[in-house]
Structure formats: C-alpha cells, structure tokens
Amino acid sequence: MAFPGVGEGDRPAALMTTLGRRLRARLRLMRHSPPLRMPSTLRALGILGMNERNGDYIGIYNDRRHYPLVDDKLKTKELALAAGIATPELYGVVEIEHQVRELDRILDGRREFVIKPAQGSGGNGIMVIADRRGVNFLRASGASVTRSELEHFISNALSGMYSLGGLPDKAIIEYRVKPHAVFDAVSYQGVPDIRTIVFRGVPVASMVRLPTRQSDGKANLHQGAIGAGIDLASGRTVDGVWFNNVLDAHPDSGNRVRGIQVPDWDELLTLAARSYDLTRLGYLGVDVVLDRDHGPLVLEYNARPGLNIQLANQMGLLSRLKQIRALAQVPDDAAARVALGQQLFGG
C-alpha cells in the first residue's frame, strides 16, 4: 500500500528505519552506562522529553476544548459507544450523595463490578469487586469489603478525593473486565492494558502494561507494573521494563514477557486509530484491554500520555513523530492509517 510522502524509494524513510534499529541497540545499554543518560546523548537517541512533548506536540495538536472528552471517563464512554467502539458495559452512575443508597438498584444482584471516579487519574480511586461473600464484597485480592466501606469509598469519589484538581466528581460502576488468557503467565491478579500512542491518527508506538505483586495487581508503571513494548507490525511483545530496568521475565512468575502474540492486533490498532476521529486530539494515548469474552475494549483516552513507552520499546519517539509530522497528509481511513504506522515503524 502506498501513502502520500512514503514510497518504496523513499530514502529518508529508509534512513530513519536504519537509525531506529541502531537507537534500539544503543538504548539497551542505558542501564549499564550512566553517561548515556546525559541530555545531549538522549537527544541524539531521539528520546522525546516532557517539555518537547508539551510544546511541540500536545500544545500544537491538542485543542484544549476537546480535553473534557477524554478527562471525563463517562464522556469518553458515551462518545465511544455512539461511534460503535466497544467499552466495558456501564451499569450505573452515582452523581450525588443520596444516590449511594440506591446501590442495590444499580448493581441488580451482580457479584462482580468495578467502581471508578469519572475524572480520576493515575489509576487512583479504582475498586475492583470480584465476588460477594454473604452481605460483604470481595476485592480481587481476596480482601473483604463491607457495605458501609463500599458506600464510604463512593462518597470519597464524589467529594473529588481521586479526581483531577480535587473537584467534585461522579462514580462510575461498570463491567469487570475478564483478562484474556494470553497474559495469564505474565500478570499478577489484575488486568493488563495496552497503551498506544496515536499521532495525527497514526499509531506510532504500543506497549502492554503487566501487573505485578509490587503494583498490587494494577497496570500502573509508576506503582511497579511492567511495560513491555509491542512491535507494531507483528503484535509481538519485546523485552519488558520494570522501574527503568530492562528484563525478559516477569518478576513474580519467572515467565518470559518477550515474544507474546497479542490477539486481535490489527483490530486493536484500528480502535486506537479511530479514536483520533472521535476526540480530534492529534497526540493521544489510547488504553485498550483484551477481554476473554468481548475482545478489545477501549478503557480510556489520555490527552497527555506519558513517555515511558520509549523505555518499554527501547527506542525514541522523536524520529517517529517527525516522520508523521512531515507528511503532507495522512489517510482518512483508520485502517489505512494503521497500515501506514505498521509500514513505517514495524519490525
């Protein structure tokens, strides 16, 4: 497939691909050679820094008017469902304090569900209920939660304890994702998720975040989850990163994180690419989970995605972003944009 500005004889694109291989090889040395962490060296490796991300990409390509569509998970869910994009089923929303007493009506006898703040960040304020035991609820860890404790948790979410800026919030109650078996051997208790960076509608990098005992079963890198890069063309994982250290095996199970084939890979990337059309955010992080019964489900969008995806893939984002930025136009069709990203950055 041919794309505007990208051809078989495109010498700059071929050069960037060659440089990318060299950069990945050099980045593997970063944990052994501290001098490579000097700013000048990081720039030479094509590492995207926070200031450059904010000024040259988020500041230019993300219109702040569209931020509420992604900062509020309830609005994100409504937007995605209207476009036919699958998300975890919404059971109900608690908006004001007296609705906490209507919890039985919302749950409708369900034994498992997830409660999260609509405008939460960093994975905070999420309670996963895996079952019931008598009048109490059981968390995924096996810990028991009383009805009073559950109501208090929801009240805290409404007060803004977990929300951006501490503003009053809503509590979302939704389907508990059942993780695909493909990650069972390299995941501790929680649900792995797949983050894809989409620039101008083109996927440029992906990684899977694997929960560990250290992260308490959460797919949060800052709390101790593993980030394993994913080759865009094949959908296979590469070596993982854990607290900025490269590793090839999960610290809890000892199983290899490299070489795992992500199911429904092209469908997953297409969901990520379509998210650009929904949000109109040019620089976007798309988080997708793989459910064993429902396949890929969009979990949330992020207008300010972090930079650890570079460590997980052992490559710098900057060269990839510059290639997409240099294109006079990108395809209108999401599947064609996926193919473009795979052509440029796969392998």
UniProtKB/TrEMBL annotation:
<dbReference type="GO" id="GO:0018169">
    <property type="term" value="F:ribosomal S6-glutamic acid ligase activity"/>
</dbReference>
<dbReference type="GO" id="GO:0005524">
    <property type="term" value="F:ATP binding"/>
</dbReference>
<dbReference type="InterPro" id="IPR011758">
    <property type="entry name" value="RimK-rel_E_lig"/>
</dbReference>
<feature type="domain" description="ATP-grasp">
    <location>
        <begin position="77"/>
        <end position="328"/>
    </location>
</feature>
<keyword id="KW-0547">Nucleotide-binding</keyword>
<dbReference type="Pfam" id="PF14397">
    <property type="entry name" value="ATPgrasp_ST"/>
</dbReference>
<dbReference type="GO" id="GO:0009432">
    <property type="term" value="P:SOS response"/>
</dbReference>
<protein>
    <submittedName>
        <fullName>Alpha-L-glutamate ligase</fullName>
    </submittedName>
</protein>
<keyword id="KW-0067">ATP-binding</keyword>
<dbReference type="GO" id="GO:0005737">
    <property type="term" value="C:cytoplasm"/>
</dbReference>
<dbReference type="GO" id="GO:0046872">
    <property type="term" value="F:metal ion binding"/>
</dbReference>
<keyword id="KW-0464">Manganese</keyword>
<dbReference type="InterPro" id="IPR039523">
    <property type="entry name" value="RimK-rel_E_lig_ATP-grasp"/>
</dbReference>
<keyword id="KW-0436">Ligase</keyword>
<dbReference type="InterPro" id="IPR011761">
    <property type="entry name" value="ATP-grasp"/>
</dbReference>
